[in-house]
Amino acid sequence: MVHLDRHAFFGLFFTALVWAMPMPGSGQMTGQLIVTVQDGTTSKLTPVRVRITHNGRPIAQLPTQAVAVMYGLWDHEDGYAFQPDSSFYIAGQCRLSLRPGTYQLSLSKGNEYVKQQHTIVVAAGKKLQKTYRLSRWINMVDKGWYSTDGHIHIRRSPRENPLIMTWLQAEDVHFGALLRMGDFWETYYPQYAYGEKGVYQQDDYLLTTGQEDPRTPELGHAFAIGAANRVRRRDRYYYFDEIFDEVHRLGGITGYAHQGETFHGYRGLMLDGLRGKVNALELLQFCVDEHPLHTDHYYHLLDLGIPLTATAGSDFPWCGQDHGHGPPEHSSRIGNARFYVYLGKTATPKPLTLIAWKTAIERGHTFVSSGPILDLQVNNGDNVRQSAIPGDYLNIKRGSQLSVTVHAYGHLGQTPLDTLELVSHGRVIGRVTAQQSGQSSAHLSLSVTLPNIEQGRWIAARCSAGPGQAAHTTPVYVTVEGGSFHNPETASHYLDLSEHYLQEIEQTIAGEQPKLDEQAWRYQDGLRSRIAETRQRIAELRKQLR
Length: 546
Known about the structure:
By secondary structure, this protein is an alpha+beta fold. 18% of the residues lie in helices and 33% in strands. It contains nine helices and 29 strands. It has a 17-stranded mixed β-sheet that branches. Strands 2, 3, 4, 6 and 7 form a five-stranded antiparallel β-sheet that branches. α5 (265-273) packs across α8 and α8 runs antiparallel to α9. It is globular. InterPro entries: Pol/histidinol_Pase-like. GO terms for molecular function: hydrolase activity.
């Protein structure tokens, strides 16, 4: 999570009360609105997000059918049934008593369904029944890709499982990682179990647990998902690597949150990333500013030949554009930033399991998105049957040719594509826009042939669309005759920058700090030994990457 203005959160959440219409019983006869929402393919009731406004202002009435779960900043009871943007979730049906008038009804179900806006007129003493069918503009599960929100903060016991699951289904998030949060002093958002014992599943939707802990102002925020138990060592709190090692032993995945941007996360990322302690980086999230994709620290490690899986998460209820700086769909909500995991495309769907999901993340079969969909494939020109997707290693003979193809998919009305790029070693090697001939805001495609490959490289795709909409793949790692995929042109620069970050840590721990939440100086001996190990690794890389 990221520290946001708590008063702004309260102000937004209680917008429904400030702007509320008079409640029934004020002397004017009301009408009944009955809403039914079905899946456009199956015709079955489907969980959905609902927002009702009158003259642009949210109503205060809440249907009894609203699915309610307590949530809030610092694990406080800031919210319940209403979401921060005054919407609410239902399992497919709801009934409301409303004063006569004209209302606007918004229905949404994540990124893959087409959002709907309806104008409805409620008459006094009348019953208005409306049935709506939500349809997808794309179905990623059919293609073998499952959406994931890797960063959600809601406390959970078994009793809340079905309720939280409805929230995820209403956002079409197939995997939700609920993270217990900690700091030097305390823990928040407790989870009743971890690993397989903490899994709750309905069909192809799954809840799992993890942690965002340690979290420090000096070294950043770390996350772990899928381990058989939580790991916390308050008396050794700043030794992130010990937590990572234990999480790996327990079968979990580790990484740094918030793109490594906030709370000096880049320092910890280099300290632990250069020593091979982390699997992933949270590459896309609405915590830093209104644009969710920040790649500087990601490209830093990739150019040094260090693989890192791209993940994403909402950091609900902390992060989102809740202050009038972005569209409502990017407000603080589950799934506003997500990543897709490839579990395989088969005629008969395989059973969805935590193990299969973790394995796919460990292999890097992911792309992150706040709307656009990416499909990247890299082929060895000397062996067209040898094809690679994000996270794969593609080993080729010196002088071989590569064929790279990427498609981006969007929706004209809600995810209008703008630009699609292929990136290798941080440089754009191919680019198209929706304005070019043969391209459109619904589909962009790009093919690049790279002849006579003499050295390894990483190749990724990225895409931009409407405001706050972006996507980026984990790279394909191309190696030549078993070598590295690092970038020899930037390696020296990034190693120098890594050294600079180590010096920042040394300055931070040099003396006692007056701030109570900055305790790194108490661990200076252990941190200095870790800095020395990292410097040794930098020296080794200088020799290897020449």
